[in-house]
């Protein structure tokens, strides 16, 4: 009998969405860089003061994340910062579609971090820590956009709303973890020690869907928000932030 070639084994099916989210190269890129950065001394009583501080902070984040994004074989553009007002229309055309009930958001078009100063409160120390946390979280979305995670989330087809909401929680909790990884690595520059560090820890432990007036489960519970934020802060490494392989209970 004439020898026959063995039947070819089927090639493994590659899920581009899972590859971009759960298997992203960012997780193996290493620790977030500690970068030299001089932050302005501001009181945050005006949009101009808020933007001055936020833009300097974003420039620091841009430097710190650059080596990791490049190691991830990804495109990395610059993020912008703009102000908007909830309920009164945007102050900047860059923030032209603010989500409802939002005091900050990331606009993929133009890579814009949009901030509402009125959400920061009147206590100077609390307002500063709140701004640091908010900007770091929104820059986390910029990192996700840069490495393809945000695009992959938008591409995925969902059969149910609960399935979509679970992935949205994974996305939002990851942004908080990535932001916290930067703040943990650069805690000295950002003054996150003593009272300010305790304020930050208390803040991230009390952020979650329990406080959403619409009761939509799209950002994760306060327990899980605290878990991912503290995990990222302690590690200072994006490897701690793979929410897309975490069990459902960790992204509830």
Briefly summarize what is shown.
The protein has 252 residues and is mainly alpha-helical. Helices cover 45% and strands 5% of the residues.
Provide an overview of this structure:
With 252 residues, this protein is mainly alpha-helical. The chain has one domain (38-251). It is 45% helix and 5% strand. The protein contains seven helices and three strands. It has a three-stranded mixed β-sheet, covered by helices on one side. Strand 2 (104-107) and strand 3 (112-115) form a beta hairpin. Helix 3 packs across helix 5 and helix 3 crosses helix 6 (194-205). The longest helix is centred in the N-terminal third of the chain and has 25 residues, at 47-71. The N and C termini lie far apart (61 Å).
Which structural traits does this protein have?
3-stranded mixed beta sheet; mainly alpha; 252 residues
């Amino acid at each position: 009998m004439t020898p026959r070639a063995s039947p070819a084994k089927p090639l493994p099916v590659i899920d581009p969405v899972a590859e971009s989210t759960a298997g992203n190269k960012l997780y193996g890129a290493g620790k977030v860089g500690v970068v030299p950065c001089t932050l302005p001394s501001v009181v945050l009583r005006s949009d101009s003061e808020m933007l001055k501080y936020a833009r300097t902070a974003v420039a620091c984040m841009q430097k710190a994340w650059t080596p990791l994004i490049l190691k991830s074989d990804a495109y990395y553009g610059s993020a912008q910062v703009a102000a908007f007002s909830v309920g009164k229309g945007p102050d900047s055309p860059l923030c032209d579609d603010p989500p409802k009930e939002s005091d900050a958001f990331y606009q993929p078009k133009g890579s814009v971090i949009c901030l509402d100063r009125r959400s920061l409160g009147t206590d100077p120390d609390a307002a500063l820590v709140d701004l640091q946390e908010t900007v770091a979280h929104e820059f986390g979305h910029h990192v996700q956009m840069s490495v393809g995670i945000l695009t992959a989330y938008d591409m995925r087809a969902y059969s149910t709303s609960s399935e979509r909401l679970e992935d949205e929680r994974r996305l939002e909790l990851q942004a908080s973890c990535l932001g916290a990884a930067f703040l943990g690595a650069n805690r000295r520059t950002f003054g996150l020690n003593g009272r300010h560090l305790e304020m930050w820890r208390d803040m991230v432990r009390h952020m979650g869907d329990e406080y959403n007036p619409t009761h939509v489960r799209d950002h994760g519970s306060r327990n899980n928000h605290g878990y991912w934020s503290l995990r990222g802060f302690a590690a200072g490494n994006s490897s701690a932030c793979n929410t897309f392989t975490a069990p459902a209970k960790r992204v509830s």
